[in-house]
Backbone:
């Protein structure tokens, strides 16, 4: 497994030459291919609107200082997440709402060197699942290694990633999503902003149910964060004849259980290269992307119901996924 910061800096290094501690200082900057265009990475710009012309798409944005600006290009890729503003602009009232799945995900990381040798050896080389069922309470925990500081994969420097799923009613969400400054977030509370009382209360629940190694890890998470699990899928991926397209979570959100969100987005990008080269058209790309995205969504929903103890819903979702697989015949998919 890898971490988001390691992936981010690797991509920045390969695309626009941003040097970071993730890259050896003696490593020369990547050479630009004469057949490729230049890359500019602009942070802090929020999508505001777009205009589609005969031969260009113009995006209007607002920066961190509140100043407006615009950029134009031949193709706009909306890869702006599950609450995509690009998708909302293109679909209008038909834009699908994110649906709450009935449970939340508490997350955090612990450096390997900070846990006991017994705990470290217990999880070494494993992707660990823990499912606890006690009366009306069902928990599910995923635990696995990710790279540590500056992308290090050295034993002791790696991080143990702790993902703890618990049921929560919709009535509980406003309180859980209110941060230390009193601001209520919509779908997640970032690192460093989760209310300490909420995490302490959660830890107390784990004290009498978690096995010792899981208790140790949970207690050593210094900066936990919270994510509300939702489902969302767009009915379209291509707009204006291929001038605007959706990609990744903006097209279809996958529950974290199946671990396919990043892989799905990468496959869509690779297939898009075939469109750019003229090997396939946008219509075929969209058809395959929507089919595979729907199958991945159904699969992740079935996994979620299984691990969260929703037996009836799990059976229904599993049958739906099987039928869809047979009907769509994804073995022929351009996405592999």
Residues:
């Amino acid at each position: 497994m890898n971490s988001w910061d390691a992936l981010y800096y690797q991509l920045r290094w390969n695309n626009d030459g941003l040097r970071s501690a993730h890259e050896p200082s003696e490593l020369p900057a990547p050479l630009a291919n004469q057949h490729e265009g230049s890359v500019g990475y602009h942070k802090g710009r929020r999508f505001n609107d777009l205009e589609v012309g005969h031969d260009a798409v113009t995006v209007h944005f607002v920066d961190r200082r509140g100043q407006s600006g615009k950029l134009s290009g031949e193709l706009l890729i909306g890869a702006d997440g599950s609450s995509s503003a690009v998708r909302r602009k293109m679909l209008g009232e038909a834009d699908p709402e994110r649906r709450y799945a009935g449970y939340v995900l508490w997350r955090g990381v612990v450096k390997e060197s900070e846990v006991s040798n017994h705990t470290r050896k217990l999880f070494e080389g494993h992707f660990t699942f823990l499912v606890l069922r006690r009366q009306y309470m069902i928990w599910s925990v995923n635990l696995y290694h990710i790279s540590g500081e500056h992308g290090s994969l050295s034993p002791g420097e790696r991080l143990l990633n702790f993902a703890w799923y618990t049921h929560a009613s919709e009535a509980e969400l406003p309180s859980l999503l209110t941060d230390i400054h009193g601001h209520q977030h919509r779908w997640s509370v970032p690192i460093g902003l989760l209310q300490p009382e909420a995490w302490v209360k959660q830890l107390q629940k784990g004290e009498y149910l978690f096995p010792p190694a899981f208790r140790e890890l949970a207690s050593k998470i210094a900066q936990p964060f919270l994510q509300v699990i939702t489902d969302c899928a767009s009915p379209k991926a291509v707009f204006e004849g291929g001038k605007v397209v959706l990609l990744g979570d903006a097209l279809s959100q996958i529950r974290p259980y199946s671990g396919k969100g990043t892989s799905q987005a990468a496959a869509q990008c690779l297939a898009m290269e075939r469109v750019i080269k003229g090997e396939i058209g946008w219509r075929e790309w969209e058809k395959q992307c929507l089919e595979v995205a729907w199958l991945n969504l159904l699969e992740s929903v079935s996994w979620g119901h299984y691990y969260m103890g929703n037996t009836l819903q799990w059976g229904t979702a599993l049958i739906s996924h099987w039928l869809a697989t047979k009907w769509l015949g994804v073995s022929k998919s351009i996405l592999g």
User: Anything to note?
Assistant: The chain is about 35% helix and 25% strand.
